[in-house]
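Reminder: ligand-aware prediction takes two inputs, not one.
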Amino acid sequence: METQARAVMRCDAVVVGAGFAGMYALHRLRQRGLSIQVFEAGDDVGGTWYWNRYPGARCDVESVEYQYGFSDEIARGWTWTERYAAQPEIMRYADYVAKRLDLRKNIKFESRVTSAIFDDESRRWTVETDRGDRVFAQFCIMATGCLSASRVPEIAGRETFRGPSYHTGAWPHDGVDFSGKRVAVIGTGSSGVQSIPVIAAQAERLFVFQRTPNFSLPALNAPMDPDFVEASKESFAADRKRVRATNSGAMMAANDEPALGVTLEERQRNFEARWGRGGFAFMTSYNDLFNNIEANRLAADFVRDKIRKIVTNPQIADLLAPTNHPIGTKRLCLDTNYYETYNLPHVTLIDITQTPIERITPGGLSVGGREYAVDSIVFATGFDAMTGALLRIDIRGRDGLSLREKWTGGPRTYLGLGIAGFPNLFTITGPGSPSVLVNVIIAIEQHVDWIADCIDHLRANGFSAIEAQVEAEDRWVEHVNQKADETLYPLANSWYVGANVPGKPRVFMPYVGGFANYDRICAGVAAGGYEGFSLA
Ligand code: NA7
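Here is what comes back for the chain with NA7:
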């Protein structure tokens, strides 16, 4: 990329990223009178939705919930068309919000932040981009997203492939036509599960390379009934208030009884009813599915039975039915016709659990001594989640301490908001916060509001810097681990623990203790004069 003339700026805060977190941070802080500069690598707002344009990309939180809640006016001014919004509709929503709030004037696009360096003397951050920008700011706010550092695995021979290859998280903006093509999809997480049925509908031949089968539930996506949409606008403010007081951060009421406390028939009826509703409702059938292995097995058996009923070839059904992790401990997928796709004669599932892809050749992929000839390869291989986007930036705090060095053994934060050694640097939905385990927009709003109040407090009381204390950070890291250990989550090799990235330290990154509990803790910290932080 050509480097433009170096522009030097001063502002109160730099926000890195213009996804939903960066957009709201810009709005909220600007409203509080701060001068803000946002940098965004893409050429528009939308963050992860800007990049993830793969066929079938769709939100797995219901659209009436997956929207900002800070302004009833904004919510009322937007009308969702489907139960689960597809990527283009979410981009239109992001554009609508950006226009309503006139956000773009403070965002510099196509500018990737390369470094953020703290100066001990001036107590300011110097933030630089690959376009030659250089900004001095009191605060540095990392709105870099949890799933924004896409990852193509090191597979021998990758560069020798003759045809085009794509990563789902960096999809071409003008789309890809797979008509008449032989296509390989590597990966069966959410992106694979969503894109495989759509690619299969186009391609002449589709080979799916599966390392780990994932549990997927039917989305039962459908156009929204206009009366329902209007009614949901009426109740939106009250609904959002109620949801923010729950630990799940979701509207769907959880059934507060244990799976093992009811009869087999009753359980089957309840599972069936929730499966039939579509979406994640199934996982709130009982209150012990995430912490009792036996209860979890009952739910997993139900889903495995469903897979075996849908997929006509029993050997393929067996390969698709996950047995190596409790249901829900790897991010669950929501699908439209995923399992049905394997009944199509031109779709082949290749199990690479025992025999990984040996190499990519000019004409395809070779596995177990067999060559699969393909014209295109789709890497649905996920992200360096939660820490990747932060660590790709050279971030240096007090005394030159680099974040990469500090996090060699895994991420350490206080509340997922602040990091000891990095004054005035805030992470939005950072490791150690509920982030990806709840509706991320609710998590974003809670974080940004907390940060805005914190900055107000600093200014009102004549402080110039805030920094997490090491002891508070240690206690928080221990608490996050302890909460995770009370659940079944650590039993899975998921991206929640970094297991998908070779060499990444195994640490359970999101906070599993519940949104409302977390919100209360953060509010308590603020009310106590920012306990656990040092104010200078
Ligand atoms: P995920 O959920 O991380 O899925 C990535 C998939 O790619 C998963 O099946 C991986 O298998 C597979 N993978 C990764 N590396 C390889 C290699 N080297 N060989 C074969 N297969 C591989 O990413 P997604 O993009 O699908 O979804 C990310 C989130 O976005 C999702 O959770 C939602 O929150 C939205 P593995 O399971 O690691 O064995």
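Residues 147, 153, 168, 186-192, 209, 211-212, 331, 352, 357, 380-383, 495, 500 surround NA7 (CB under 6 Å). The radius of gyration is 23 Å. We will return to this case in the review session.
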